[in-house]
# Entry
Amino acid sequence: MNTLFIKNRKGQKVSVLVEGEDNTAGLAFVMHGLGGWKEQPHIQTFSNTFLENGFTSVRFDTTNTYGESEGNYEEATTTNYYEDLEDVILWTKGQSWYKEPFWLAGHSLGGICTALYAEKHLERIVGLAPISAVVSGNLSATTPKYAVAMNTWEKTGWFEYRSSSDSGRMKRLPWSHMVDRLTYDLLPEAHKLTMPVLLIVGDQDDSTPSEHQKMLFDAIVGPKEMHIIKGAPHTFVDPKHLEEIKTLFDRWIKKYA
# Structure
């Protein structure tokens, strides 16, 4: 295990955790969602499953989140998350353990970022797992989490809500976050996702519901599977749900590795 700091294109420090550098099965990048961090239980579950299958795993904290990287949450955007993913991948290309093609897994906003990268660089990707992924900004605006707040958010400039993974934390996002998110949509280019794709979502998800995941599933033309975790919310924390996800990941990796 090796945690280090690299610089992104803006000169900000990005915390990167590399595990299994000597593993030979391949390379996997695992990305957290909005306001997340690389040590969250579900992110660790994705990463550990790759490690147990002989992969080198790279996790990182984006800037503008609650991890070890620089930045402020109120400045978080889909664009800055995506650019940090690009910058981490670019950095790994100079490492002795870099392997291509590689695997991508991401949760929520990390899901749309990894899928956007795969749409642009399909020749570099072995498998893609956008878990509980944001499918598009426009669809996000219709979800229970955001729909009731849209008018007030735009008028006041701010959206405040309680963290789903830390109930004691209140989060604030400026309207500019949604303006940025509305520019992204996986569906028009989803036909480019010809690599194996794994979709997982909880049936209690109010941010990226199963209906949105089914739209993405239907637009993908390559090998694909979609699983709905009974009783699970957007962010997976229940050990039972995490074990179910690990089983699905393990089976999927073994099928295509």
Observations:
- The longest helix spans residues 239-256.
- The mean pLDDT is 97.
